[in-house]
Design a protein that fits this description.
heterodimer; A: alpha/beta; 8-stranded mixed β-sheet; 4-stranded antiparallel β-sheet; 12 strands; B: alpha/beta; 39% helix; disordered N terminus
Chain lengths: 347, 381
């Protein structure tokens, strides 16, 4: 794993967001935390990109760095052609009307002291969109779209709603300015399974109705597969594998993806739980990540080369990319790849 | 092991019969808002060496049930009734000192969050030996040796060093292994695992579940595995009880439950989980609305307001647990899944465009939102 490289990036006018060599580091008293280390991603218009990985893989940090919350240490974030990292505060605020965020905890992300109609209308008020009556109509429209009765919901406050309903309100708020790209950070992991399905279907419906492009960040591989058009698997701040969900889940090439998929308990008693081939050991510290491939310390396929040389993202099939010297299937990486570097070289 | 001190309390109990027998068990909380019926008439039993899965969503009462069986709810507003017999000994009404003799040596629990269930200012070694010294009266060095063995058996590398560490120096998976070691320390016959892997990553979850299963087999314990994840219980239990709004709504041997679902709630749960083998963008079936208020649950079936099959009878009359054709399979439903009555009921509801039925069949997220709104406005009147 531990991949740097841009082989999986696509050209074309319909690429809404292009992230190149994104690096996020945090200086702490214990040293530098390498949260995200040189990852590249892109999302096409109308596409859902799933970012999946376990805690500490940097998926949420990536989502926030795209929003410049906080700004990345280095790397480019090109949103509709503009590099967000180079924008001034005011310009960035304007861009953020088209770039929205949905958070994990639906209850704490809503102000408990405000009424739902004010929460949802706030972006309109800040940007002075429309008259009072127009704003009211717009709020009613999005509340209805997310399956809340505007008559009933508008005058209530967040604590009067269940977690699932609060997540619907968050989604309504993110839609009210008609954004282009919505980044959803674990939007269903705080919800019960029965409510999770409601929100997943709702996101699909909203995507169709409002022509949205989504980045969907989650740890649950089944959820990510259900909603995504393209999936990127992350581990310890690096991209492991990128591909179309059906292909990637059927024939995972990266040993980490394969191990992740094997670990998931299947809701079928005739399938015995997997006892072998599971990952052992712990995630290495992001303060001092392993040399070469970051997954090598837990990888069943690891060899000497993995410690010396970092694998670069390369194609192993149509729309399927992997950053691994010795993938589960497909050919081993050619000796001493000469990748086309974008931005800063790897250390 | 020296467990004679604890055996004394059980002298009256014959070794025949189930390890745990729960009969019409209730646990209510007296609150300013009213009596919360968190567990409302639960019956189940468990043999030694078997695993029972208790599945339910937040607020279904699964955690309260397991804690109440163990007698861990000691607040003054807790009202317990019914019967819990552990090896023949009645636990409802047992005093704290009677319970203390059972905790650790006879029954133990692994909690959800290994971060908060360990003492942050006590070394790992001491936390394990504490139980050994208190319950089994082992001398210090013997307890230390046994703790080392326990850490080894739960798969902790370099146990000698770990004994001297504090919980914050360990990863989440390692901490959960430590809590399992503590729970197993005095050789309990019954182990409760309450969402033991919910706080853990999926690769670690698999390791911990395998560890629990292996320990259960080796020690021939009865195990109650409480979880919200049907995937977790599918391959690792002998029997499953599905809880909803404080009651068991379906109970069956694991393979029967998955093959012959009768209760609409169980069916809905199974169908609303995204599955790995499904193609991307598969439309999920939805359960609209949310669980009822446990202070004043609906008069009929508690799932009726959200149920795609619900008929007028369901709203008026609470169904009892009904025996299915397979022995040991029980469910609470007037119009069960997989029967002609159930099939007709769903058809009728679809004809009338009831939102709960449409959400379940078409996955209409908008309709699902309205189920909740309808249930609420109905309740406010």
């Amino acid at each position: 794993m531990a991949g740097t490289g841009t082989a999986h990036l696509r050209d074309g006018d319909d690429v809404v967001l292009r992230v190149e060599d994104l690096t996020v580091e945090f200086k702490t008293s214990a040293g530098t935390v390498h949260a995200v280390s040189g990852i590249s991603l892109d999302v096409r218009q109308g596409e859902t990109l799933g970012l999946v990985g376990e805690s500490g893989c940097g998926k949420s940090t990536t989502g926030r760095a795209i929003m410049q919350l906080p700004a990345p240490t280095s790397g480019k974030v090109l949103f509709q052609g503009a590099d967000l990292a180079s924008l001034s505060g005011q310009q960035l605020r304007e861009v953020r009307t088209r770039l929205q965020f949905i958070f994990q905890d639906p209850i704490s992300s809503l102000n408990p002291r405000r009424k739902v109609k004010d929460i949802v209308a706030e972006p309109l008020r800040i940007w002075k969109r429309g008259t009072d009556a127009e704003r009211k109509a717009r709020v009613a429209e999005v509340l209805d779209a997310v399956g809340l009765d505007p008559e009933v919901a508008a005058e209530k406050r967040p604590h009067q709603f269940s977690g699932g309903q609060c997540q619907r309100i968050s989604i309504a708020r993110s839609l009210v300015l008609d954004p282009t790209l919505v980044i959803c950070d674990e939007p269903v992991s705080a919800l019960d399974v029965s409510v999770q399905a409601q929100i997943l279907n709702l996101l699909e419906d909203m995507k169709a109705q409002y022509g949205l492009t989504l980045i969907f960040i989650a740890h649950d591989l089944a959820v990510v597969k259900n909603i995504s058009d393209r999936v990127a698997v992350m581990y310890l701040g690096k991209i492991c594998e990128v591909g179309a969900p059906d292909d990637l889940y059927a024939t995972p090439a990266h040993p980490y993806t394969a191990a992740l998929l094997r670990s998931i308990p299947v809701p079928d008693p005739t399938v015995p739980p997997v006892q072998s081939g599971l990952l052992t050991g712990d995630l290495p510290s992001p303060l001092d990540p392993p040399s070469g491939c970051r997954f090598r310390t837990r990888c069943p396929n690891a060899q000497e080369r993995c410690a010396l040389e970092e694998p670069w993202v390369r194609a192993i099939g149509p729309e399927h990319y992997v950053a691994c010297h010795f993938p589960v299937h497909g050919t081993d990486a050619p000796a001493h790849e000469a990748p086309v570097a974008v931005g800063a070289p790897v250390q | 092991m020296a467990r004679s001190t604890n055996r004394r309390l059980l002298t009256a109990s014959p070794t025949e019969g189930p390890l745990l027998a729960v009969e019409d068990f209730r646990t209510h909380f007296d609150t300013p808002a009213g009596l919360v019926r968190a567990v409302d008439g639960v019956s189940l039993s468990l043999e030694r060496g078997k695993t029972l899965g208790i599945v339910g969503e937040s607020g279904s009462g699964k955690t309260v049930l397991s804690r109440s069986i163990m007698g861990l709810l000691t607040a003054r507003n807790v009202v317990r009734s019914g019967s819990v017999r552990f090896h023949g000994q009645e636990l409802v009404g047992a005093s704290n000192s009677q319970m203390r003799a059972l905790w650790g040596t006879e029954m133990a629990m692994v909690f959800q969050d290994p971060m908060t269930s360990l003492n942050p200012v006590m070394k790992i070694g001491r936390q394990i030996t504490e139980g050994l010294r208190f319950h089994l009266k082992l001398p210090k060095d013997e307890a230390g040796a046994q703790a080392l063995q326990l850490l080894e058996s739960v798969g902790i590398p370099d146990p000698k060093r770990r004994m001297e560490q504090y919980p914050h120096e360990l990863s989440g998976g390692m901490r959960q292994r430590v809590t399992i070691a503590i729970a197993l320390a005095c050789g309990p016959r019954l182990l409760f695992a309450d969402e033991p892997t919910t706080a853990l990553d999926v690769t670690v979850q698999a390791q911990i579940l395998n560890l629990l299963q292996q320990q259960q087999h080796e020690r021939h314990m009865g195990m109650v595995l409480v979880t919200h994840d049907l995937g977790v219980v599918a391959g690792r239990t002998d029997e499953i009880a599905v809880m909803y709004a404080g009651q068991i709504v379906e109970k069956a041997p694991t393979t029967t439950l998955f093959a012959n679902v009768r209760m609409p709630y169980t069916e809905a749960l199974l169908k609303s989980i995204p599955k790995l083998e499904q193609a991307s963008h598969t439309r999920l079936q939805i359960i609209g609305g949310r669980p009822p208020d446990l202070v004043s649950p609906p008069p009929g079936c508690r799932f009726a307001p959200r149920c795609p099959y619900a008929q007028p009878k369901c709203h008026a009359e609470a169904p009892p647990l009904i025996e299915a054709e397979t022995p040991g399979h029980e469910f609470r439903c007037w119009f069960p899944v997989g029967t002609q009555a159930g099939h007709d009921a769903l058809e009728r509801n679809l004809e009338q465009h009831l939102p709960a039925a449409e959400a379940a069949v078409t996955g209409d997220s908008h309709a699902a939102g309205l189920v909740e709104v309808a249930a609420e406005t109905g309740g406010d009147d």
